[in-house]
Amino acid sequence: MLILFALLLAAVVAVLLMLVVQRREQHRETLRAAVLQTQVDLLKAAADDPEVARVAVGPDLAGDGPAAVRQHLFLDAQVTAWELQWRIGGLSQQQLRAHADALLADEAGRRYWERARSARLGLAGDDSKLRAFAAAFDAARQQPKATAAH
Hints:
single chain, 7 helices, elongated, disordered C terminus
C-alpha cells in the first residue's frame, strides 16, 4: 500500500511538473507573438512617416527613394507576419515554402531577402523554428537561379 501511494504521489508530481513546463513554454510563445506584433506595428508606423522609415531601414536603404523604402518595410512586415504564423503553428512547411517561393519569385523580393537575410539568420540563433523559417527563404532564393539555368 505504501508503494502504491508513493507511485501515485510521483505521478502527481510528474504531471504537475509537465504542466509547469508546458505553461512556461506557452507563455514564451505568447511573448514572442506579442513582440512580433509590435515589430509589425513599428514597421507600419515607419511606412507612414519618412523620417521614421529612414531610421527603420538603416543606412543600407537610407539613400534609396521613398518607394523603395516603403516596399522594403512592407515586405519586412509581411515576412514578420508569416514568421508569427509559423511560430504559432498557423503555417505548414508547405505553406511556408509557397510564401517564400512567391516572395522571392521577383526582383523586389530577392532584393529584400538579400538585405534582410543576415539579420534574420542572426536572430534565429539556436531557435530551430526560426532556423527552419529562414531556411525556407534561403531554399526559395536558390530556386530562381536553378530554374533560370534551364
